[in-house]
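Incident log, support desk, overnight shift.

02:14 A customer reports that sequence design results differ from what the structure should imply. Their input is reproduced verbatim below. On-call engineer (initials T.W.) acknowledged and began investigating.
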């Protein structure tokens, strides 16, 4: 694989030279530029470590995670598909060494999802089945990984995938897995936020309102538990989504959690 033989090449050279002629990163908003620069820097660090320590399992899945994080800022399908394929290579390399690696199965499923998102054709639906298997395997191996990440991702997969006979989408399964994520990692904001947003999407306003209240209740403690630069992008995302959900529901923010304080 190209990446394994080219430790000094930039992602631009790998991704069809796209970055050499102009960065495809989202650059319209200062916050996006900051997060994009951090993701790119982390990608380079993770790639260098993976290429230097190819038998290090942590280096492999952390590189896959870096590919996933950077993918959000690439605006063309060619670059996004290339990043996803790099993550897939790293995960398959890891699983060839350690077939029972929960992070390996977890990030393989995530990278398959990123690759499927660039295809928009029947081949993508076949990849969804593999994602389902990989997330379930990760859940069996370590349901606590990434704060109930396997259950959380399975819930979103069942929620957003087309239903039978096209694909595996199922509201019942989505609800079960999203609730499982909350039960496994009840102090992680993303799990409550996903469930509350899903209830709103399913027109269950009372459940969405209760989910928002549960999120508000854990918010102050979460602010003290998930701190530092590594969490700033998460908090920006969570705060934006919480504010949007609150507006949809028509709830007034508690004084301690008002919109002006939600990112502080």
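02:41 Re-run completed on a clean worker. Output:
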């Amino acid at each position: 694989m190209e990446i394994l033989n080219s430790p000094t090449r930039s992602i631009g050279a790998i991704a069809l030279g796209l970055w050499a002629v102009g960065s495809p990163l989202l650059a319209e908003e200062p916050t996006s530029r900051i997060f994009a620069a951090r993701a790119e820097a982390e990608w380079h660090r993770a790639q260098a470590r993976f290429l230097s320590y190819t038998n290090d399992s942590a280096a492999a899945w952390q590189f896959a995670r870096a590919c996933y994080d950077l993918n959000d800022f690439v605006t063309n399908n060619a670059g996004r598909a290339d990043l996803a394929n790099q993550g897939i290579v790293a995960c398959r390399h890891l699983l060839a060494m350690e077939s029972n690696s929960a992070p390996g199965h977890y990030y393989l499923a995530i990278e398959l999802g990123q690759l499927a998102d660039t295809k928009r054709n029947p081949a993508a639906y076949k990849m969804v089945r593999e994602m389902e298997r990989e997330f379930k395997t990760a859940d069996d191996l370590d349901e606590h990984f990434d704060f109930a990440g396997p259950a959380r991702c399975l819930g979103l997969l069942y929620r957003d995938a087309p239903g039978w006979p096209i694909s595996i989408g199922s509201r019942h399964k989505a609800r079960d897995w999203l609730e499982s994520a909350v039960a496994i990692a009840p102090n992680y904001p993303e799990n409550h936020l996903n469930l509350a947003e899903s209830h709103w999407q399913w027109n269950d306003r009372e459940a969405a309102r209760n989910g928002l209240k549960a999120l508000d209740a854990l918010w102050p403690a979460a602010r003290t538990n998930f701190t530092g630069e590594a969490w700033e992008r998460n908090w920006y995302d969570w705060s934006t989504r919480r504010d949007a959900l609150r507006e949809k529901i028509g709830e007034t923010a508690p004084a301690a959690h008002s919109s002006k304080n939600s990112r502080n």
